[in-house]
């Protein structure tokens, strides 16, 4: 089973990802479209060049990697909603169980 966890910034998604990553039957993937997002938007985010060097900026390559991962029976994909910029196909999402992590806005601001 492929679980795609969708969240915004300042959520609890990183802690959840690390919890799943500690399971022997789960491969965890952190922000697989981050390099695509940075390349397409040109935003100067922290560690921009390191992120682009570590991932493909081609969204089709990211999708293929997510769908073809066979290292473990399960994959946990931590996605950021804002990384899904125009031009990235959403069709692949049908292949995963999609979960949306929504945090109350006052708790986001407080953190």
Tally of helical segments: 5
Helicity range of the residues? 25-40%
Query: Any low-confidence stretches, pLDDT <50, length ≥5?
Result: none
Cross-sheet strand order for the largest sheet: 2-3-1-4
- Write down the Rg: 14 Å
CATH topology: Rossmann fold
Question: What's the CATH C level?
Answer: Alpha Beta
Spell out the CATH superfamily.
Answer: P-loop containing nucleotide triphosphate hydrolases
Globally, the shape reads: globular
Question: In angstroms, what separates the terminal alpha carbons?
Answer: 32 Å
Please write the string of helix (H) and strand (E) elements: EHEHHHEEH
Q: Which structural category do the helix and sheet elements fall into?
A: alpha/beta
- The CATH architecture category equals 3-Layer(aba) Sandwich
**Main beta-sheet annotation:** 4 strands, parallel
Per DSSP E runs of 2 or more residues, the count of β-strands stands at 4
Précis, in short:
This protein has 5 helices and 4 strands; from the N terminus they run E-H-E-H-H-H-E-E-H. The protein has helices at 13-21, 34-41, 48-54, 59-68, 105-110, and strands at residues 2-7, 26-30, 74-80, 97-101. The radius of gyration is 14 Å and the shape is globular.
